Amino acid sequence: MQKLKIGDIIIDVIQKEIKNIHLSVHPPTGRVRISAPSRINLDTLRIYAISKINWIRKHQKKMRGQERITPRDYIERESHYYLGKRYLLRVFEEEAKPKVILRHETIDLYVRKNSNKKKRQDVLEEWYRNNLRLIANEFIEKWEKIIKVRTNEFGIKRMKTKWGTCNQKAKRIWLNLELAKKPIQCTEFIVVHELMHLIERKHNEVFVALMNKFMPQWKHYKEELNKFPLSHETWDY
Ligand SMILES: [Zn+2]
After folding, report:
1. Average pLDDT of 87-112?
2. Cα separation values, 8 from 11, 18, 186, 224, Å
3. What spacing in Å lies between the alpha carbon of 218 and ligand 1's midpoint?
4. pTM above the 0.90 mark?
5. 193 CA to centre of ligand 1 in angstroms
C-alpha cells in the first residue's frame, strides 16, 4: 500500500477503479485513508490531502477524545455535563458553606477562597450524587411496582466498568455516579435493568424477553449510554 506523509499524519492510499476520491478517518486511533481512482498520481493526492488537513485533524481529535479520559480542572468556563446537557462551569468564591446552583446554561459552583481542585471536585460530586440519588429513588419506586420486585437498598458510587450492579441475594443495587451526566432515560434504563436482575441473574434470553416486555425501547438507551466510554466526561467537537 502506498503512503503519504503530511507532517505527523500518515495516510494510507488505496488506488482502484473508482470515480471519485474518498477520504476517511477510522476509529479507534484515527487512521487516515484515501481511496482514489488509479489514474490520479500521488502528488495530486498530496495536494488534495493538504487541503483537507483541518478536517482530518478535527476528526482525529474527536475520535481520540472519545478514547481518552479527560481530567477536569474545575475552573471557569470548563464544560461539565448534567442529565445529558452540557453546561459551563462558573466558580464563585465566598466565605460560606460550599454549594452548587444549576442555571440555564451554567453550573455555578460556590466555594471558599483558594479552594483547590480536589475540594471543588468534592463539592460538585456531592451535588451529582445527591441529585442522582433523588432521581434513582423515584425510578426505583416506580419500577418496583411495575415489575413487582423489591430492593432492600441502593447506593451510588464511582465504578470504572459498570453502569450498575445488582446483588440478587442481598437485593442491593449500585448505580454509577457518572449516570448523573447522562440523559435521565439512561438512568431509568439502568434502574430497570438492575431490578430485572432480581428476577433473572444472567443476561440470557429470559432476561432480554423481560426487558423487551417492560421497556421495549431499552436498546436505544443502551446505545445512548455506550456512545461514549464510561469515564469520559467531556469532549471537543
Ligand atoms: Zn446486567
Report:
1. 96
2. 10, 28, 39, 33
3. 13
4. no
5. 6
